[in-house]
Amino acid sequence: MYLKGPSPQHHDGSGLRVAIVHARWNESIIEPLVAGAKDKLLAAGVKESNIVVQSCPGSWELPIAVQRLISASQIQSNATGAPSATDLLASSTSDLTLTNNSSGPFDAVIAVGVLIKGETMHFEYIADAAVHGLMRVQLDTGIPVILGILTVLNEEQAKARAGIDGKGHNHGEDWGTAAVEMGVKRQEWG
Ligand code: DLZ
């Protein structure tokens, strides 16, 4: 039988710290995606206190938000007395607010956005830039960044990919699972 998606592996996420950064456009679709990702992190053993959820305005802002968050978490864990992730984010990006007080570098970040094609070229420009930006951030930092950006033609497709109304499958769950695998492998591979 042909299976869509990666064949499953089990990984223990209990030693991981993971961030979820989501855009706030199309929030009714974003919410179940973030919840699905978080559920899979918890199911793999990631502690609630080691899951940080942040937001930014739109998908365009995801690369800079992810990059600053990774950088802030590394500075915080490397130097005593250095500004905390909260301080750094508050000074640079006022709409990002940490949702818990745990600290330490992130092992993986999930970037979540929903782009619905409109009548202008915005969709193509934002999707292309955001996807390339996120790839650059993960290669530049060495921290896996999970691509949680849905690019869909209409709301119906978006709902199906977020598992809304019992239709389709919640892709956020796949992103949570991918974050655990890549976080664990990054620790193993150095
Ligand atoms: C401008 C815009 C448009 C038209 N559509 C979306 C969308 O479908 N999903 C999304 O996440 N963001 C959208 N944005 C907002 C941009 O990502 C960005 O926040 C603004 O252009 C400000 O830089």
TrEMBL record:
Function in brief: Catalyzes the formation of 6,7-dimethyl-8-ribityllumazine by condensation of 5-amino-6-(D-ribitylamino)uracil with 3,4-dihydroxy-2-butanone 4-phosphate. This is the penultimate step in the biosynthesis of riboflavin.
Pathway: Cofactor biosynthesis; riboflavin biosynthesis; riboflavin from 2-hydroxy-3-oxobutyl phosphate and 5-amino-6-(D-ribitylamino)uracil: step 1/2
CDD domains registered for this protein in UniProt: Lumazine_synthase-I
Cytoplasm listed as a keyword: no
Class of the enzyme per the UniProt entry, highest EC level: transferase
Source species: Bionectria ochroleuca (Gliocladium roseum)
The protein's name in its UniProt record: 6,7-dimethyl-8-ribityllumazine synthase
SUPFAM superfamilies: Lumazine synthase (SSF52121)
Reactions mediated catalytically: (2S)-2-hydroxy-3-oxobutyl phosphate + 5-amino-6-(D-ribitylamino)uracil = 6,7-dimethyl-8-(1-D-ribityl)lumazine + phosphate + 2 H2O + H(+)
E.C. numbers: 2.5.1.78
Superkingdom: Eukaryota
Similarity comment text for this entry: Belongs to the DMRL synthase family.
Keyword Transferase set for record: yes
Keywords carried by this UniProt record: Riboflavin biosynthesis, Transferase
PANTHER family the UniProt entry points to: 6,7-DIMETHYL-8-RIBITYLLUMAZINE SYNTHASE, 6,7-DIMETHYL-8-RIBITYLLUMAZINE SYNTHASE DMRL SYNTHASE LUMAZINE SYNTHASE
